[in-house]
């Protein structure tokens, strides 16, 4: 394998918390620099004053509030953060130093899943923590989409993995939310988003009782619950067993369907999110189906909304399809100057920038944290055209690290922390791996055998 491991003509960009990318590949550096800087522009420090209930019908809003530590997650012309966007942006936000905002927003969603709300979280909040009025009309009349209920559980486990903060496993609000959420069915409550729909695909117009993305996120939520239970010293096997039951149900009873209508008919063909969430969450992994997802999303089934595109790099990274994942990252980046279906530019939809940040670190560099154990795993997923790439200032638990891959042949980890010794597993594309201890301030290189 050819490696461009030279340091001449280094292209570099720096940003918040010293999160910095370096590579001989100019487009990667441009992409990361744009995404990092654009995402940080969506952040609000706690105590900021600003309008609330701003939307396309009320561009001046209904007054002013004192903002929580938070960031935009949803339409730029609305003054708030949305559940579906938040769970997808949270990893990027963590990397950008927005851990306080993540916890604040997460707890706000979790606390809203009250008995009068049917244990389902409110869909959107103003930055001051009040309900965003365009999406909330009353306790029984607010926007709900099944997959988000379960993705919030997965988000709790993900942020615990990145931060190591025991609040994610001990906080009673988060703990109660997760326990209640996984007890809910993955079924719709009606055909309107204000009644509660089964799928993230708002543009499909199908009366689905249950959808592939709902079942897939329910499956992933149970695996997350197993992880959270074990972090508390409790038994996680029962949650894994339930996840296995859901997988068997999908494989044996769905027979290739992507959902079922309210009158029980199976729905096949292409359905965007309710087609590609099954491989995204690990519920389906056959190569022919991944080919189908890519062909549809690239061609006749291409979603109109860039939000749907942002999931696709993660789909293909999960299944080792590095070149396809990188192609989708490039398409999303290049589309930033195009028009968004709801107005404005695609690049002004916050999810685009936040997810590109996380897809560089967790996708291309394959960084998987285990902050509670002061550990991490890396796996180079660099496409052939990127000879080498490095990101420094990656926050994991109480410290930060820098990771550099030279192709799939060698990986270097620098422990930038002054107090944490990391247990590092350097994995390689051929399936080999080595585990090393990296003390504070040390730089260690692992080479593929």
UniProtKB/TrEMBL annotation:
InterPro entries of this UniProt entry? 6-hairpin_glycosidase_sf (IPR008928), 6hp_glycosidase-like_sf (IPR012341)
SUPFAM superfamilies assigned to the protein according to its UniProt record, in alphabetical order? Six-hairpin glycosidases (SSF48208)
What is the official name of this protein in its record?
A: Alpha-L-rhamnosidase six-hairpin glycosidase domain-containing protein
Protein species of origin: Nonomuraea roseoviolacea subsp. carminata
């Amino acid at each position: 394998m050819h490696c461009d491991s030279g340091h001449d003509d280094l292209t570099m960009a720096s940003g918040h918390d010293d999160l910095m990318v370096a590579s001989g590949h100019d487009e990667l550096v441009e992409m990361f620099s744009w995404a990092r800087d654009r995402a940080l522009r969506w952040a609000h420090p706690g105590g900021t004053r600003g309008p609330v209930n701003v939307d396309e019908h009320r561009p001046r809003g209904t007054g002013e509030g004192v903002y929580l530590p938070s960031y935009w997650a949803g339409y730029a012309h609305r003054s708030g953060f949305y559940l579906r966007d938040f769970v997808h942006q949270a990893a990027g936000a963590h990397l950008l130093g927005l851990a306080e905002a993540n916890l604040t927003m997460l707890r706000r969603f979790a606390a809203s899943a009250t008995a009068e709300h049917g244990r389902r979280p409110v869909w959107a909040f103003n930055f001051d923590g009040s309900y965003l009025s365009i999406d909330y009309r009353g306790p029984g009349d607010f926007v709900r989409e099944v997959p988000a209920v379960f993705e919030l559980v997965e988000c709790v486990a993900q942020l615990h993995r990145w931060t190591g903060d025991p609040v994610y496993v001990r906080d009673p609000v988060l703990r109660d939310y997760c326990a209640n959420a996984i007890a809910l069915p993955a079924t719709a409550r009606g055909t309107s988003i204000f009644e509660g729909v089964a799928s993230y695909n708002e543009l499909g117009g199908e009366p689905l009782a249950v959808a592939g993305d709902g079942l897939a996120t329910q499956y992933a939520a149970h695996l997350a619950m197993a992880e959270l239970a074990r972090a508390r010293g409790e038994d996680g096997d029962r949650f894994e067993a339930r996840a296995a039951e859901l997988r068997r149900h999908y494989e044996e009873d769905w027979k290739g369907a992507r959902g079922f209508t309210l009158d029980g008919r199976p729905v096949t063909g292409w359905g965007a999110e309710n087609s590609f969430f099954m491989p995204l969450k690990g519920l389906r992994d056959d190569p022919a189906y991944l080919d189908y997802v890519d062909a549809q999303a690239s061609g006749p089934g291409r979603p109109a909304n860039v939000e749907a595109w942002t999931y696709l790099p993660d789909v293909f990274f999960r299944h080792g399809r590095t070149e396809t994942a990188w192609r989708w990252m490039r398409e999303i980046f290049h589309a930033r100057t195009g028009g968004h279906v709801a107005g404005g530019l695609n690049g002004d939809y916050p999810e685009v920038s936040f997810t590109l940040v996380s897809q560089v670190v967790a996708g291309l560099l394959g960084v998987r944290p285990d902050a509670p154990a002061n550990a991490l795993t890396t796996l180079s997923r660099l496409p052939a055209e990127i000879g080498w790439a490095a990101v420094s200032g990656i926050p994991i638990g109480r410290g930060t690290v820098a990771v550099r891959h030279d192709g799939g042949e060698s990986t270097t980890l620098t422990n930038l922390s002054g107090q944490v010794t990391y247990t590092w597993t350097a994995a390689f594309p051929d399936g080999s791996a080595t585990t090393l201890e990296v003390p504070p301030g040390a730089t260690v290189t692992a080479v593929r055998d």
